[in-house]
Amino acid sequence: MAKYELPKLNYGYDALEPYIDAKTMEIHYSKHHQAYVDKLNAALEKYPDLQSIPVEDLLKNLETLKVEDADRTAIRSHGGGHANHSLFWKLMDPANQKDEALVADITSTFGSVDDFKKQFTDIATKQFGSGWAWLARDEQGKLHMHGLPNQDSPYLHGHTPVIGLDVWEHAYYLKYQNRRPEYIENWWKILKLI
Ligand code: MN
Predict the structure, then answer these.
(1) Looking at the structure, do residues 87 and 111 belong to the same domain, yes or no?
(2) What is the CATH number of the domain that holds 54?
């Protein structure tokens, strides 16, 4: 029985046009994200006790889960993929409003929203190969930026993700091909939170 499920997308595949095209959204959500969910469920088949744990908690406690090493790796990859994409769809919701508290926090931490965007863009642009750029809160609530490879989640490091940008080629290649910087530049136009 499948335990984890694809979260509902609160907007249409074409809602982020022209910055993210409908075909990319459809494949990204219904194929890539679905595959992470399916593979996470497959990895947890042997561990019924773990299937009711929120995926974020699986990632936070990954090192102490009583699972075989191969399954730990699968939970890291596919659980990470599930958690990361679930946040990503919410971040891009066109109905989002500016989060004034987050803007204030970013401004006091990084100088200004523009300074933050510049540094975050740099991390996203330079992330080698597949991965994400992250803004996350540490255990003290302080904001940090970092790039992480593959589907590694900030939860693995005890951080709580706030903003994540998917720079896997599957996130942009259909429309932008190798032009990752153009995808990133346009992504800021989608993000309404800051
Ligand atoms: Mn992705």
Answers:
(1) no
(2) 1.10.287.990
User: How many A from CA of 109 to the centre of ligand 1?
Assistant: 28
**CATH number where 106 lies:** 3.55.40.20
State the Cα–Cα distance between residues 41 and 47, nearest whole angstrom.
Answer: 10
C-alpha 68 to ligand 1 mean position (Å): 26
Question: Please, what's the b/e burial string for 132-158 (b: 16 or more CB within 10 A of its CB; e: otherwise)?
Answer: bbbbbbeeeeebebebbeebbbbbbbe
**C-alpha of residue 108 to centroid of ligand 1, in Å:** 30
Work out the pLDDT band at 110, boundaries 50, 70, 90. very high
pLDDT tens per residue across span 42-85: 999 999 999 999 999 999 999 999 999 999 999 999 999 999 99
Predicted confidence band at 3 (pLDDT cuts at 50, 70, 90)? confident
* Ligand 1 center to 58 CA (angstroms): 20
pTM of the prediction?
Answer: 0.97
Give the number of domains in the chain. Answer: 2
| Span from the CA of 77 to the centroid of ligand 1 (angstroms) | 12
Q: How far is the CA of 26 from the centre of ligand 1 (A)?
A: 11
Whether 14 is in a domain gets the answer: no
